[in-house]
Amino acid sequence: MIGFLIKKTFFDLWDNMFRVLLLNLGFIASLAVPVFLPGIMGNPALSVAVFAIGLLWCFVYLSAAALSVKALSDYGIFGFGDFWANLKAGWPAGLVLGFAFLLLFLMGRIIIPFYLNLNSMAGLLLAAVVFWTLALTLVSFQFFFAIRSRLDTKPVKIIKKSFIIFFDNPGFSIFTLLYTLVSLVLSMALAFLLPGPAGILLFLDEALRLRLLKYDWLEANPPADASVKRRSIPWDAILIDEREKTGTRTFKSFIFPWKD
Description:
mainly alpha
């Protein structure tokens, strides 16, 4: 399943490179607001306000981008009109994740140092608890926008399902986090043009979409005894249709698709 996920993400990214590039350019322009504008504000309070508003806007933009790339992982496309509609539909989720990110940042920046400065075993223990809580939350929240796109629109339920996905698929969630980190490093080398935020959102949407097929299979094939341990998932059988839709390609077909 992992190999097919990487393959399908690459195919969809390659086929829609221009659209992904445009989304990334929009995010780069959005990121300039919280990065550069606060420094030219003469008033400290105004600088903080501009930074917070700019950061929240970036999360709103990412929410719309996540709704847009969903069409790509579903073997479709999206246009400017679709992005505008997604912006209007996705802004609440973007604001919620933006505020959550600010809260988590403040917890890591203020609370952990406070406990460490107590210079006691209790303080060290409390700092460790806060750290691992933040880490678990960040790993779970990587699917926040994908869940908003595919499962639910209510922020509380999105948060709840983010944790459910993580605890039910911890190994898979750690893999997607590592893939995301590698993609971020590659994106920095390419000035965030590719794969960039949109490419990462596409991967996470592809990951959740394929992972949800597991639950469809489990619902269709429940164990005879509820106490029986969940059976191994037959991914080769589950992904037959997906592999047929994705197909296979040669290096020549990537560079000269019109010659096939």
